[in-house]
Design brief:
Blueprint: H1 12-24, H2 33-60, H3 66-99
Helix pairs in contact: 2-3
Length: 102
């Protein structure tokens, strides 16, 4: 068994400078609000479709995993709630912008 001596720590400044230089080379990932909204709507469609399919399979007796059905149903409900909240907040924000006096 070898005993490895404890090596001294690097100064904090050198660690921060190497991290900062690595981040300078990265391109910032920007996404427009419309892209985010389109992704959320697509997610809502997928979860609603999966939930409907699971409900159909349960009705015809093809569903073996009731826990997965409940999980998919909860995902669809959460996605719908989020879509409603985002929509109402976007409409409220639009109304506030329209009512602003110039």
């Amino acid at each position: 068994m070898f005993i490895v001596p404890i090596s001294p720590m690097k100064p904090l400044e050198s660690i921060l400078s190497t991290e900062a230089s690595g981040k300078l080379n990265e391109q910032p990932k920007s996404s427009a609000f419309s892209d985010v909204l389109k992704g959320a709507i697509e997610n809502l469609r997928e979860t609603q479709s999966q939930s409907s399919e699971d409900a159909y399979n349960l009705a015809v007796g093809d569903m073996d995993n009731l826990a997965q059905l409940m999980i998919n149903s909860a995902k669809a409900e959460a996605a719908l709630t989020m879509a409603v909240q985002v929509t109402s907040r976007a409409v409220n924000t639009y109304k506030e912008i329209v009512q602003m006096q110039l």
